[in-house]
């Protein structure tokens, strides 16, 4: 059995991995995490998607405490502005559109109504989307029976505080934290397996399994084992991000239950609302605007005052050829990075951890486990990549060179196929294991102004008037459910207040 | 070329498949939209009985046929799974139930509890933790009930008389105005990868906008005319003929029997008035006469129907305005599921992608991709059974990781190695069976992994033992209280 597990890197990926291994593996396993205060954490993924709740629940984390400690807010989705056209806005919210009737998805019914007779946009039948528009949020679990509970939620939190929180949690569960910089990595000359790390203080840490959470550089997976990087920047061209934190404009500002992604001239700007501040960033391609221009755009578009120095992240979108090689598994940025548009970073970290636990190696390191892990992770990265490409490619924007490139670029066959099939039939093709399923694709496809030419022909059995009445009822149910919800600030205050913006002045200082 | 709106759908086939396709289309779409015809050649090439999967039953709801009406009309029995007999050539059998085994354990699947226990104590009967398995072998039945209770772990299906179902469907087809044309296909005319018309043996020309092949024949004039190749799996499955017979002997069992018998596989499906037997054999080893002689030795047996078949699939099911469903697209040995199940899966996928015009390139790509995956997964499940027979017959080493898998498809090798190495299932899209079903199949066929999920070692095993010992007892006492199959069926159908 694997006895010694060594994790290199202590950001979100490192401490999520350490926590999960400490929680789920036999107590006889020794888990050591090496990190250095001298190396800045990237702290990706302040925004998440609903699957993170399964991860936290499996650890046994108390949600209220975790949210309070990380200044977390609830997230119902992402608001996309200016993506298909300048001036457009839509929500990719975590919930279903209307209700299926006779196993036929709701959107086909909506499509069957003549354009001139439609009195509501499809997003008006989506509870979390309407709630996002009104900054409302009721904390409840998904319940398919009630229209007002047919949604999922995720979190927006301070990634550094989340890493700190998990660090404390994991160390209480027996994980050993070592402060230091890795100076040298030793390998077995016979089989190429990693045998140990030498830290800058001379300490040698040996192990059976090494998890590389060292960030973009991939200290173990790349610099030691030489696993190449698959560059996807021709499909996802952004390669820089300026990030800054900013204050809310006032103490009584409404905190949106969503992340905002506003398309700019050569990328987009995020705004992630936490309890005490917002996280802001401009993701762009330096092939189209300079880094200075990127910074100016960021500062022009933040709503409050910046409360720290903007920092520049440089990245290339893509993934390692394989994330598991020999006795090393790359999790987080060392394994790949897409970009933060759909908050997939933490979800991919989580996916890798859960797969590693499922196919956890024994001392034989049978290659079949590595193969299955790598096969599945490739599927997960490619699926997320394709969903992201949809946002860039399905645009009508032609106002900048960047958007012209995205609109006209060649995309993977799978993306092309999914868009064309939807355009023609209204049918959303996806796999059973996908992170993003029908309602996710629908939100973005419709939001990007892709309206199908047809709908499911089974609907022609229904009378048009009957459909209109059904839609009217669902629209009203949606509206009533949202109207009954408290505003997001109120839910936060009553459920999980940390440094909620009542401490705004303190945060600003 | 202009796209032609689909108004006339022509379905080719003689059995329940063609009728069901017609009924589903008629019931799911606006009656005014399409004219549906069936061209029937009058030849019987289906089993006397059908053995359904739990997932198949919902198709009857689509055509407005409730369970009781269905069962009353087709001499139906309930079914809890499949009994595989004579796995080792010495009479050893194993039962493969529907439904779940054991219960959830945090993030770890139940099979790991079983694997760990087996490693510790040398033996473990997985079916001790399946209510369906225990009930089936005791010939007891109730419907699943009370979410969260032991009875909710049940999952069931049905055995049906194909002949009666055909009569029932024929009646419904007539009522819905499905036109039936008698005649065998003589010629299929095409242009630009589309069928333009079909000429029957009496020289009648059948025109249509969309043609659905439910002939149950993978190699036929349609495949030839549309230039669709066949991917044979004969390198892994030797049997190439099937002899079918119906016998009026007892057939009240709650399971399908599959028996490995000196180079043959015999499948027996019990109905209320007898049982159907399909004998799968290789013409290189056994002659049709020999098989027929053996079957006729049963004095209650009716006529033996013998036919050739090809195990495998076509490269595509849907091309242009032509779609092949069920055994016209692909055939597998009906070990865990009948080919009728594959037909239903294909039909359901088609209905969801139903085309408005004969320009169906995108829809057909989607269906072909998914249906091919589904059939390959079914093939891999069946290979597990064959590997089991091979292992037992050869008295091979118990070291399963040493089995030479090179002759098998890559996907099967990967799945098998993953399970044997760690007890985990490799993930593939469009699996034909659920994860619990697949893992239980490995264990029931005695493919026990050498390792279990290390997360098992975090559990308090004494608590786990108590929990599952109690479950085992509860299963036994529940079975004791369940009514007899016949008694239950009779009361249910009379109510």
Can I get a quick summary?
Chain A starts with a strand and ends with a helix. Chain A is α+β, with helices and mostly antiparallel strands and 509 residues long. Chain A contains 15 helices and 21 strands.
Structure, described:
- The complex is a heterodimer of chains A (509) and B (495).
- By secondary structure, chain A is α+β, with helices and mostly antiparallel strands.
- Chain A has three domains: 4-46 and 158-232 and 317-382, FAD/NAD(P)-binding domain (3-Layer(bba) Sandwich); 85-153 and 383-483, no CATH class; 240-314.
- Chain A has 15 helices and 21 strands.
- In chain A, the strands form five sheets. Chain A has a seven-stranded mixed β-sheet.
- In chain A, helix 1 links the parallel strand 1 and strand 2.
- In chain A, helix 1 runs parallel beside helix 6.
- Chain A is globular, with a radius of gyration of 23 Å.
- In chain A, 52% of the residues are buried.
- With 495 residues, chain B is of the alpha+beta class.
- Chain B has two domains: 8-76 and 160-232 and 313-371, FAD/NAD(P)-binding domain (3-Layer(bba) Sandwich), CATH 3.50.50.60; 99-158 and 376-481, no CATH class.
- Chain B is built from 14 helices and 22 strands.
- Chain B has helices at 16-28, 58-62, 67-73, 111-121, 131-137, 162-175, 221-225, 288-296, 339-352, 361-393, 410-422, 435-444, 461-481, 485-494, and strands at residues 8-12, 35-40, 49-51, 77-79, 81-85, 94-97, 157-161, 179-182, 185-191, 194-200, 205-207, 210-213, 230-232, 241-247, 255-261, 264-271, 274-281, 305-308, 312-314, 318-319, 322-324, 330-331.
- Chain B has a seven-stranded mixed β-sheet with strand order 6-5-15-16-17-14-18. Chain B has a six-stranded mixed β-sheet with strand order 8-2-1-12-21-20. A three-stranded antiparallel β-sheet of chain B has the order 3-7-4.
- In chain B, a hairpin with a 2-residue loop joins strand 16 (264-271) and strand 17.
- In chain B, helix 1 (16-28) packs parallel to helix 6 and helix 10 packs across helix 11.
- Chain B is globular, with a radius of gyration of 23 Å.
- Chain A binds chain B through residues 1-2, 24-28, 58, 354, 357-360, 362, 366, 368-369, 371-372, 375-376, 417, 420-421, 424-425, 427, 429, 431-433, 454, 456-458, 460-461, and chain B through 28-30, 33, 106-107, 351-354, 356, 362-363, 365-366, 414, 417-418, 421-422, 424, 426-427, 429-430, 451, 453-455, 457-458.
